[in-house]
Model the fold of this input.
Amino acid sequence: MRRGVIAGAVLVTLCAGCMVVPVPHRRLHVYGVRGSVIDAQTRQPLADATVSRSPHGQNDVRTSSDGTFEFKPVHGWHGAIFIGAIPLSLFPSFDIAFAVAEVRVEARGYTTESFYLSTRWPQGITSPDRTTDGRRIIGGDLDGNYLETDPLLLRPVGR
Done:
């Protein structure tokens, strides 16, 4: 009986909006990336190219025999509070995962390229080809927790 009274009091207090309850949970922090690396001239896949992702410090990955690569999404603990039925973040500026990524691709016999991957053009970009610091811009689509990119093209050295 006593437990029922306590539970009822907590429920009434929550519904009245008078109590703050911390709720830890896991959420998406960084979108994963799936893509492929191909030769810009022949359009053939490049196996064993190294793809590095920044600034999230994830390990480098190598492309498979068909030129594809994947960075897994990053999930982490997150805090939220409920004031009545309204959820609020404990860390408001850290609450949104953006579907963008920066990668650098290296392959033997090819020029090293940096790419900015996004679902839409970044603000202030006037050229659909390169950012102001020389990164190539590549579009993509969201598929769950992944950003699926268009192929990343590498040019052979000296061409």
